[in-house]
Amino acid sequence: MKSWIFLSVAILTEVVATSALKASDGFSKLAPSIVVIVGYVLSFYFLSLALKGIPVGIAYATWAGLGIVLITAIAWVMYGQKLDLGALVGMMFILVGVVVMNLFSNVTPH
Fold first, then answer.
1. Three-state DSSP state, 42
2. What is the C-alpha to C-alpha distance for residues 7 and 101, in angstroms, rounded to an integer?
3. pLDDT tens digit string along 32-49?
């Protein structure tokens, strides 16, 4: 269970860092740039801790998939990014894929 908490923290810190990446304006703004660097360092640190108890393929797929969906949702809310039907369906497939891997794969420790 602790590994899944570490993976959740890794996902959240990566999402914060990626959101700040746009705000950093090409690393020309100091505060958002610091958030990016600290966020990515923390994300990879917690991902490494999660890998002690979760297979790397499952952990990375979950980390990347949920990160994509969360970043897209944040871009929609914060930056006005438009999402069409194709984008929404694609994100649904990503979420379904993550759920199927985590619930039905024999590789994942349940």
1. helix
2. 15
3. 999 999 999 999 999 999
Contacts of 37 (CB under 8 A, 6+ apart): 17
Percent of the chain with pLDDT over 90: 85
Joined tokens for residue 108: 């994942």
Pair of tokens at residue 8: 């959740």
**81: its two tokens:** 């990014």
Name the residue type at position 71: I
Instruction: Report whether 58 contacts 105 (CB < 8 A).
Output: yes
Q: Is 55 left (phi over 0), alpha (psi -120 to 50) or beta?
A: beta
Confidence of residue 3 (pLDDT cuts 50, 70, 90): very high
* 80-92: burial string, b at 16+ Cβ within 10 Å, e else: eeeeeeeeeeebe
Is-contact 7 54, C-beta < 8 A?
Answer: yes
The rounded radius of gyration (Å) of the Cα atoms in the chain is 15
